[in-house]
Structures are given as structure tokens and as C-alpha cells.
Amino acid sequence: MRPERNAYRDALALDGFWAASSADGIEADGLGLVPGFAAGGLVAVPGSINEQWAERGLRDSLGPFWLQRQIVVPRCAAGMQARLQFASADLTARVWWDGRLLGRNDAPFLPFAFDLGELQPGAVHILTVCLDSRLPTDHPLPGIESADFAREGRSKDEVYPPVRYDFFPYTGLHRTPHLCFLPKQHLGAPRIEAGYEHGGTLRVRTRFAGLGRVVLSLLDGESALVRVASDDGDFDLSALAVEPWSPASPKRYRLRLELKRDVETLDEINRDIGFRDVRIDQGRLLLNGESVQIKGFGLHEDFPVLGKGQALAVTVKDLELLRWCGGNSFRTSHYPYAEETLDLADALGLLVISECASVNLDFRRTTDATLEQHIAHIERLIERDHWHPSVIAWSLTNEPGYLAEAEYKRAAPGYFAELFAAARVLDSTRPFTAANVGSRHGLIDPLYAHCDFLSLNRYLGWYENPAQLDFAIARLRDEFDALAAAFPDKPIFVSEFGADAVAGMHSSTDQLFSEEYQSELIARYWDLIANHRHCIGGHVWNLVDFKTAQNFRRVVLNHKGVFTRSRDPKMAAWRVRGMWR
Ligand code: BDP
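That is the input. Now the predicted structure with beta-D-glucopyranuronic acid docked in place:
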């Protein structure tokens, strides 16, 4: 559960410099408790190590990287239960406390925690983390080794560092970890469902151990709209006189849960929630009963020097750029973003499609463990993000089956049936989807059967039919018509469309990589999306240019941003703003 500071809980941010090392054999050295780190150096947390240590030749390293720091236990620890809370540790991590292995985490971009019991104020502890971005080939975000390229019959290893996905595999503690201090008797992570149907509805399930009761308050500023108590921590409220949350009016209320014994308060947690209803009905996306069009972008967590390291200023900048363009939505392509990004989306009224870290599932290599992990990661994603009003849908994977069609046809239907069924048990209040890769499966993707709306990543006019926009758009229209006929209840959402443009490159004729072509392609797609009866909207790929692994298709960056990596507009940004505002 995310760290919170209030009258009953506290949290110590573990940001700052950490000792770090990329040396081998640290584990064998008894974790080199600090002295072993002399040969290393310092890295900043939060941040990506690759960028900070590029000059040490480690820019393209997938790890392992060892990070270590001392922690002096603060006074507020007295009488409290300490919990070490990572907002993420990418891509995988093992964690030691004073040389004792606490555990590992294999879910990139998701939080995890370890209970440490009561700590002595003033005591000094050593926290060690080993980060490794070499993922196994059967991970939901599949890894690949250079040798696999040869095994796949490709003449050379094409991508370095070797990855299957199109973003740089940054390694780091990308979000601030915390040492949290909870009352001995405390509330567990609550399950919150805030809906809107003739007034607000609110279902809350709270977990706590021991004796007590939970008091729920719904606050609008200083005034309490509701204050009710429950012995088991469960609440079902309806007909609440609240304003619904929407992009036009992202009204939020503070939900406060207090754990009480007699008149004494033992613990408290707060969430700023919003009441809204989202559903797919008769081929439309309805928010609070009204049809909405999705206009926005795919994004990445990516910035010069920071890599994937969190900086709230960049978060604000990106969402403000999105709004400047007239967008109302984004997808957390292709992994869970920092929780603060969702907080901001809640506050700004943006519609978020929250995506699990899973790209290019390769069904030649999936195993039972893949599905098991994939479901576990979705469970953790939904547990983390389910209470955000901005999250309107879940995307369970991006472009599965990009490779090896035969295995995809054989294995994917069963895999998706189990994946979606497990996910639907976890949230019955939102639609589910996953992004289909057009060039491979077109109309016959087994994914479609499970999606509430069809998410299409389309690059006609770019990877296919380059510089032939009339032909590309005609093909796309045909595909939309065919999908509309085949899936009349499942609207189409174009989850990716776009073209690379190198800022400053211009052309008077259709020319790939020119700003004019990118701008024209986006406008032509949007014209089709906005006017096709079966289409609920689209996301331009991408808001901003972003770093990828090295390969001959990318000139350092993926240049499909309508803004450069330093966030300056290309022609397309102005064009989109003209279309959307
Ligand atoms: C899609 C992927 C995305 C890529 C994009 C591209 O979903 O991650 O960055 O294509 O090629 O296939 O630009």
C-alpha cells in the first residue's frame, strides 16, 4: 500500500545518493557491506543507472547493478511496525536487510513491500538491492538474449541491449522507496469501488487484524457528507448526494478510513476518490451515461538524464502538454506508471487506460509460469490502481503474437481465456482490452473475443504502405467496416497510430520522417477515427520522442512523438491541437 503520512502513520523517503556497484561476485562477498562498494560509486535514487553511469560504459547494461545505503532509524519508529516499501524496482530486484535476504520481485513497475517488525530508533541498518533487467524469455514482458536472434534464423543480433520491446530497458530504482511506520494495529489496503448511478455508490472493503471497528468518512473539503461505522470494515453505500467525476468536472471527495477501538483512533488512511460509471454499451463508451470520445496519446516514462527516473515536474509537463493538444486521455503504455501520474490524471480529469507490463508475448516461449505471473501482475496492478477515477479500462497486454503465427494460433486462445477470466474476477466495474498488432493478425485475432472494445495498433502509411496515405486510409476504413460487421457490440479504439518525424526535417511532398508527413498522417487517421460510426477514439503514438535500444530502425530515439524528447512541439503537435481544441 502506498506510503502515507498522517497523525497515525509516518514514512521516511529513501531517495538521495546510494552506493552502487556493477561488479561481479558481490553476493559471494557477503554483500560487500559498504566496504565492497568502495570500487563502485554513487547513483541517485530515483533515477536510471544507465544514464548516470553511461560514461562508465554501462549505458547499455541490463545489470546486475548493486545498490546499497545505510538507514538511521528515526524517532517515529518507536512502538510502530516498520515496512520497507518499494514503489517499483526495475526491472527485477532482490532485497537484503543487514545482509539477510528479504525476498525478490519479478514484476517490473509495480510496488512491493517487506515487513520488518519494530525497529529501534537510532539503530543503523544496511539496505541492499540488486537490480537486474535480464528477463527470462517466458516472462510476461519477455526477455531475449543475443543468441536467440540467431536461433530465430535472423542473421545478426539486431537490437542492443537485446530486448523484444521498443523502449530502452532502463535499470534503476525509478521511484522513491520508503521506510513506512504503521501502528501495530493497522488497516490493510482497502478495496474501493466508487460508482455513479442516480447518485454516488460506494463499496469499501477494509482489512484489519485484532479488535476494533472502522469509521468511514466522506469529506468534501472540510465538511463530512457521510460518517458511518462498521465492525467488519465493509461498507455499502448508495444514493450519495455527490457530483459525478468527469473530464469536464473532475470532482473528488476525500475518503477517510479510521480504525477505532472504543473512542481511540489507532490508524487512518485517506484516498481522494471520484464517483463515476464507465461502460461499453451498444458500441459506445459511456461515462456517466454519456458517450465520450477518447482523444489522446500513448506515452512513456522517459526523459534525458533521468531515464525512467521519476520527476514530478516532468509528470506535470507531460500531462499539461497532452491537455494543450486538446487530449483527454492516455494509455500507460507499456507498464504501470508511477502512482503520482494517476493522482494527477484524477485531478485533471484525464481518462487512463492502465496497462500491465507485457509486450510482444511470444507463444513459442510462454510456459505455465508466464500465465501465472501475468495474472499475478494484473492482480497487483488492479490492487494498486483500482480506486482511481481516471482509470477507465485495463489493457492486459500489448501486441501479443508479434512473432510466430503458428504458435500464436495454437496457444493464444487458451492463454487469453484464462487471463481475461482471472482479470474479470478482480474488477467488474471496468472494461478490459489489449492492443492488437495489425500487421500480423488483422481480423482473426483470438484476442478480440475477450476484449470489451478492440484496441488496434495501426501503422498503415508507415511500416506498411509508406508514403501512400490514400491507399493506407482506404485499407484502414475497410478494416474498420469489417470489424464493425464482425463485432457489432465491440467498438474500435485505435490504441496507436503515428509516424516518425525528425524535428526540423521538412518536405513539400509525402516524405517519411518529415514533420509534414507525420502531421498529415495523424490528421488523416483522425478524420477516419472521428467519422467512423464504430470508432470511440484513438491515441497518437506517441506524445514525446523516447529512447529505445539500439537498432537500425531507430535514430537514437523513437521519433513518433509530436513533441521532441526535450518537449518542444513539432508541426504535428500544433496540428493535433487544431483538430482537438
Ligand atoms: C508498436 C508498439 C510500440 C512501438 C511502436 C513503434 O506497440 O511499443 O514503439 O509500434 O514501432 O508496435 O513505433
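The chain has ten helices and 30 strands.
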